[in-house]
User: Fold this.
Amino acid sequence: MTRSQQPALTLFAVGMIGLGILALVYGDFALVWQPVAPWIPGRTVLAYASGLIMLFGGVGLLLRATAAWSARILFPYLIVWLLLKVPALVVAPQMEAVWLGFGELAVLLAGGWILFATLSGLREGSPLTFATGENGVHIARMLFAVSLIPIGLSHIVYVKETAELVPAWLPYRVGWAYLTGADRSPAVSACGSRSFREWPP
Assistant:
């Protein structure tokens, strides 16, 4: 982890800590991670456990001695939460809101994947070595690029709801809603083209 990458790690860690605190305060899963059905046995206990993983995982990322283990724990944790969105995609693939939720979690996973790729320090021969190093970073970057598409589309499909989130003192609130949706395209192109150009390393 270079000095220039440290701010990104810090922001990711603070985000994890914040989500962990919310889960512990409310005894529930983070708002974007609600696919855990109410009938699941021990749901509240699982919510608290989830909060602890995010809290201590985030704190661990900030400490050099525990950063590697935190990255190793948070990576599969984020994969599980992304997979919990898959049933909704199967049931209602025509709903953009479902793809939005999937995209938001995929973006979070991409960040966690980059940390895993750069910090995990897995031994040679590990079955997960393909997900580390430059190869892992390239895959995570492509995931990030693709995940921006449903997030941008949601601003256009749900333009009325998005416009309501724009501060009232700004003019052309609908225009801002469209702009924040359309600006994902250059980002997708930039991230994707660089990743495909450099991968495989």
